[in-house]
What does this fold into?
Amino acid sequence: MRIAVISDIHANWPALQAVEADFAGVDDVICLGDVVGYGGDPVRCLDHVRSRGWLTLTGNHDRACTDRDALGWFNEEAASAIRWTVDQLGQDRIRWLRALPEQSSRLGVRLVHASPRSPVFEYVLDIPTAAANLKDLLGGVCFHGHTHLPGIFQIEGRQVVHRYRLGAAPLPGPGLINPGSVGQPRDHNPGASYGIWDTTEGSFEFRRVTYDREAAKQSIRRAGLPERFAVRLDFGY
It folds into this structure.
C-alpha cells in the first residue's frame, strides 16, 4: 500500500490541488494537521479534506480555531489570521476541527502533528529535542509535521542526525519523519512538500511539487491577511 502523508496545508488551495494531482498510485492519505491558518482559502481546503475522509489530526492552528486560549502561543500576525479564519468557517466546520484527534497510529507508526511528547505544540528543530522524542518512541517510527521542514531525525551509531533528500529511503527505527509543508514550506524551497509511505517496501519517499504561488498570494491579499504571509511563499521560509 502507498499512503501519501501530508501536513501543514495552511489554507493554501493551489498547493493542495497540485499535491493531490501528484498522488499517482496512492491508496490512502494521512493529514498531520494544520489544515487552516496563514492562507486565504480555509473553507475550500477544510471542505476538501473533510469530503475526502482522510485521517486528519489537529494541528496548533486548527486547535487555536476552537480554543482561544491556544492563541497565546501565536504572534499577533498569526493570531490575526486565526481570528479571520474563525469568522470564515462557521460553526459546523469549527465543530469538525474540534473533533480532530491529537494523535493516532497506522500499522505501528505513530502519527502526531508536532512531536511524540507534545502532539500539538512542540517543535522538533534541534538534536536535543529530537533525541528526547526518539527515546520516547522506544524504537518506533513517528510521522509529524509542525516545523514545515522535511526530513528524518534518526540514530546513527551513537548520534542523532537529520537527513533529507528527495526520493525513497528505508524507514529508520527509531525515526521522526516530517513530510514538510504543503502550503508554507520553510526550507528555502518554495515547492509544496509531502511524502509517500510505501508500507510494502517499508520506505518513505520525499516529494516536491510546483504550484501556482501567484494564485495563493492573491488569495491572501484579497483576505486582507498580513503581506508577509504572501511574500514568504516565493522564498520558502
Notes: The chain has one domain: 2-234.
